[in-house]
Amino acid sequence: MTDGLPEMTSLERTALYKSLGNPLRRRILDYLGRHGEANSTGLARELGESSGTTSYHLRKLAEQRLIEEIPEKSGGRERWWRVLPFRHTTPDPATMAPEEYAAAAELAELKIEFDTALYRRAHHEYRGPEGWAQVQRHGTWLTREELAAFMREYHALLDRYGTPREEAPDGARPVLMRFYAVPEPVGEWNGEPTGP
After folding, report:
1. Is the whole model's pTM more than 0.85, yes or no?
2. What's the average model confidence in pLDDT over 80-101?
3. Where in this chain does the record put each HTH arsR-type domain (predicted)?
4. Which one, of 97, 171, 183, 173, lies nearest residue 139 by Cα?
């Protein structure tokens, strides 16, 4: 599901996963997320690419509604871009077309590498419960419905406390957050496999 956008088709999700798996597009999104805005010339200089290459990838990211042009700053051939708010939940793999599943799996592998490094960094930079880096691990018993409700409240908390870059108060920093929930591997639970 994408917040505020119509449900995506399998072809659109496949294109999204491939786009997010493209190393240059990921670097462009990261740069825009950190700096707020950029044009193709500035991105080319910062990322060591040609402006034609960055311009092409910016247009592709805009087609997927991941970024948008800033009309008040754009003029002539110079177009400025900013990131759009975006949230996506990958559907059940059993419902995916083969190409969509392959693209999602490839993107997941990239995310796992990044998230593993992020997890290690969070542990390394942890300075106590009031510090910037936080690491929490918990275990509890939940029904599937309770877990789904927890996820909805987790998203609501992100919406409540998070702010877009342009509205962030003084002292705010970009914070990378990850959440995983997986049942204990007990072999089978109510007829469903739950792990090795």
Report:
1. no
2. 91
3. 15-106
4. 183
